[in-house]
Amino acid sequence: MEMFYPLLLTVHIIVGVTVIGLVLIQHGKGADMGAAFGSGASGSLFGATGAANFLSRTTAVLAAAFFLTSLGLTYLASAKPKSSGSVMDAVKTESVVPTTPVEPGDSKAKDIPK
Prior knowledge:
Distance between the termini: 62 Å
Number of strands: 0
C-alpha cells in the first residue's frame, strides 16, 4: 500500500499539468467567428472542427482521471494507521538511579545561593 501513494501522486500531478495545458491551448467561444472568416483553422492538423472535438474530449477524459486520482489519494491518505496517544508516549525514558547512596543530611540545598 505504501508504494501506491507516491505512484498515484505522480500520476495525479502529470494529469493535472496536462489538463492545464489542454485548457490553455483550446480556443474560447469567441474564437469561432474568427475561424469562420478564414483564420487558417481549416489547414490545421485536425481540420476546421476536429481540434475542438479532440481537445474537448481529451480534456474531459483527463478531468475524469484527475477526479479518480484525487479520490484514490484521499483513500490512501485516510487508510494509514492512526497512532494512538501523544508524542511523549513514544519517548523512551530511563530511570535515573544515583550511584552513591544519599544520606538524609546530605542535601544540595545548602549550595544554592540566596
